[in-house]
Structures are given as structure tokens and as C-alpha cells.
């Protein structure tokens, strides 16, 4: 069976889901869960993704994500690989963590009726712990007591430092015609808790038929979530057979454009960093790969682009991708200490 086509375009919204290999856990303790959320936050910072809802279960996760740029594939590649590497390092394990390909279903989010599709998916994601019987509303354990979702870490919190910037709570509340106030957030949670009490746990969060217009798909299966008109719009964009139409923009062109954009951004960071940190072209050639000015520039590029470490190694004369990886790891662990000037420049770049 051919692989499902990845449809990418600026402003796309996706329901993303991935499971552990052979449905085994992808987190085993709260340390893993915190690492997972931190890695998601990094992915959003690098890509500009905006998250409307997320939940982390023991062996799978769900996200509802908007990609302002057409960078789903690059961002997911970075996230899945990075989290796997961190998980394996933490548990002294090796090999795949996720089973098969992640699912990324395009969601209708702008046209008439789009609010219903977004709200349905938000409820489906947030009520996942109820369906898994990890939250039992009738027993007094509320949804906010499950820490690992955008409810406890976003919708249940007032605006401020504890609410992630990449989580679009205000937009999510508007899908339910609610304001981002204490009363609005309370009504949002109460509505979900009411559904949890009234609906059977196995189907909690799903609409009665869970079908799009025309019965083309369900929340759990299919290749899009929206009206028949939305399906036709997607097909016109990439072609029903997976080949871009002559007047359309191919997925390969989209990926090429994204790569070019990231390299342009990375090059600006190199030039800006060299100027700010007094790193001349001669210094770039002659200084070692461990030069802290190079490490600071590499960290800035790593934080806000998806440019490869091989590109960084070549551009910054850092010998190899393995050396770039090693130096960034040492910086992250605190084994390297940037001077005040370099740290200030880096903080400005990634803030």
C-alpha cells in the first residue's frame, strides 16, 4: 500500500498522532514527560508552529498544530529524531521509539463550518485520558488533575510565564465563543467535564457519527478532516494521485523553499554572529571547532532553524557534524561556558 501523501502549505492545520513502536511506551516517568514537552517547545520555536491542543499518553500523543510555514515534514523529522535520541540517552537504550509513520491529517480551519471541525478535534484530544480511563470524572478526578495535556498546562492557566507562547489558548477558547478570562477558562473546562460525565468513556469526545461531510473520513481514519469542498481544495493543490498539478506548487518545491529559507536565516545568523562576537573570516578558518564564538553561532542556528549540523560544520569550519553535535551537547550540559557578550547575543537570537 503506498504511503499517504504529506500535504504541506503555509497556514495548514493538522491533527498529528504517533504511537510507540509495537504500541510500547514513549514515556515511562515524569522525567520523560517533561523532556517530551520541552522537545515540543523547541520544535515550535524552531519552526514557528502554533499548537491549539495536545495530550501526551503513555504510548502515544496527539497534537492539533498550525504551521505558518510549509514545514511539517522538516519539523516532525527533527522532533521525532531528537526526542528519540534524548529518550535513548536517558534510558541507555537504542533503536526506534515510534512505530511506523506519524499521522498528520489536514484540518479545515478557515471556511464556513471550520470552527466545528477544530472544536471537535480539540475535545477529542483533551478527552483522551477519559477514553483511556486515566481520568474518571465520576470519581472526582477532574481533567485538570491530568498534568500532561494543554488543559492543565494551558487552558487552566491565566496568561503569563507559565503558559507556553506556542500554545494558542486564546484562539482555542474562541472556537467555543469564550474569552480568555477566568470565567471563560472555567466554562471551557466545565463543558469538557460535563461531556466526560455524560458520555461513555469509550466514545467520549467523539461526535455521534464522527464523520465529515459525505462520510469521507472519521476522526481516527482518513486523510483529511473537513467538508467535501475542503477535500476538493486539497486535491486541486496536490492532485488526487499525489502529483502536483501543472499550475500548483509541488511538495518538493515546498520542501526546497523551506530549506532555502532556513539556510538564508542561518546565513544571516552567521554574519550577525561574526560581527557581534568579533569573529573575522581569518578567525573562522584558523580557530578550532570548539571556539566558543562558533559554538554560540551554531547554537543560535540550531535553536531557530532546521538546518543540518553538516551545514553548520561546513559554514563555521567546525570539522564535522559530529563535532557540532558534541559542542552543542557540552553547552547544553553546562560543560562549556559562554562569555557574557556571546551569551547576550545568543539570548537575543533565540528569544
CATH topology of the largest domain: Alpha-Beta Plaits
Can you tell me the number of structural domains?
A: 2
- Report the major sheet: 4 strands, antiparallel
CATH-defined architecture of the largest domain: 2-Layer Sandwich
Mind telling me the CATH class of the largest domain? Alpha Beta
Shape: globular
Measured as a percent range, the helix fraction is: 40-55%
Q: What is the typical, i.e. mean, pLDDT?
A: 84
State the order of secondary-structure elements, H for helix, E for strand: EHEEHEHHHHHHHHHHHH
Strand arrangement in the largest pleated sheet:
2-3-1-4
SS field, number of helical segments:
14
Structural class designation: alpha+beta
Describe the structure in brief:
It is built from 14 helices and 4 strands. With 351 residues, the protein is of the alpha+beta class.
Q: Mind explaining what this structure looks like?
A:
It is a single chain. The chain has 14 helices and four strands. It is of the alpha+beta class and 351 residues long. It folds into two domains: 227 residues, 2-Layer Sandwich (Alpha-Beta Plaits), CATH 3.30.70; 100 residues. The protein has a four-stranded antiparallel beta sheet, sandwiched between helices. Helix 1 packs antiparallel against helix 2, helix 9 runs antiparallel to helix 11 and helix 12 crosses helix 13. The chain starts with 11 loop residues before the first strand and ends with a helix.
Amino acid at each position: 500500500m503506498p504511503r499517504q501523501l504529506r500535504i504541506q502549505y503555509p497556514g495548514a492545520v493538522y491533527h498529528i498522532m504517533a504511537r510507540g513502536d509495537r504500541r510500547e511506551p514513549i514515556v515511562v516517568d515524569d522525567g520523560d514527560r517533561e523532556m517530551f514537552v520541552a522537545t515540543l517547545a523547541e520544535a515550535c520555536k524552531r519552526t514557528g508552529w502554533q499548537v491549539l491542543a495536545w495530550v501526551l499518553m503513555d504510548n502515544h500523543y496527539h497534537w492539533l498544530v498550525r504551521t505558518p510555514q510549509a514545514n511539517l515534514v522538516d519539523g516532525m523529522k527533527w522532533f521525532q529524531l531528537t526526542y528519540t535520541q534524548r529518550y535513548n540517552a536517558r534510558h541507555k537504550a537504542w533503536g526506534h521509539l515510534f512505530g511506523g509513520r506519524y499521522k498528520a491529517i489536514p484540518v479545515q480551519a478557515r471556511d464556513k463550518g471550520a470552527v466545528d471541525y477544530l472544536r471537535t478535534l480539540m475535545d477529542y484530544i483533551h478527552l483522551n485520558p477519559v477514553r483511556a480511563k486515566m481520568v474518571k470524572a465520576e470519581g472526582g478526578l477532574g481533567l485538570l488533575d491530568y498534568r500532561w495535556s494543554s488543559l492543565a498546562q494551558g487552558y487552566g492557566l491565566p496568561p503569563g510565564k507559565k503558559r507556553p507562547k506556542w500554545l494558542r489558548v486564546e484562539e482555542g477558547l474562541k472556537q467555543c465563543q469564550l474569552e480568555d478570562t477566568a470565567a471563560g477558562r472555567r466554562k471551557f473546562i466545565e463543558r469538557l467535564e460535563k461531556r466526560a460525565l455524560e458520555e461513555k468513556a469509550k466514545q467520549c469526545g467523539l461526535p455521534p457519527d464522527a464523520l465529515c461531510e459525505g462520510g469521507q473520513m472519521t476522526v481516527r481514519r482518513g486523510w483529511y478532516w473537513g467538508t467535501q469542498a475542503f477535500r476538493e481544495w486539497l486535491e486541486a493543490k496536490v492532485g488526487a494521485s499525489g502529483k502536483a498539478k501543472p499550475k500548483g506548487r509541488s511538495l518538493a518545491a515546498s520542501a526546497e523553499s523551506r530549506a532555502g529559507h532556513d539556510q538564508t536565516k542561518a546565513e544571516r545568523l552567521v554574519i550577525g554572529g561574526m560581527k557581534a562576537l568579533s569573529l573575522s573570516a581569518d578567525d573562522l578558518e584558523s580557530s578550532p571547532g570548539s571556539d566558543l564564538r562558533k559554538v554560540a553561532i551554531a547554537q543560535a542556528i540550531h535553536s531557530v532553524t532546521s538546518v543540518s549540523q553538516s551545514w553548520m560544520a561546513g559554514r563555521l569550519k567546525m570539522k564535522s557534524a559530529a563535532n557540532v553535535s558534541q559542542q552543542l551537547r557540552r553547552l547544553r550540559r553546562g560543560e562549556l561556558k559562554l562569555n557574557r557578550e556571546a551569551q547576550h547575543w545568543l539570548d537575543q537570537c533565540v528569544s
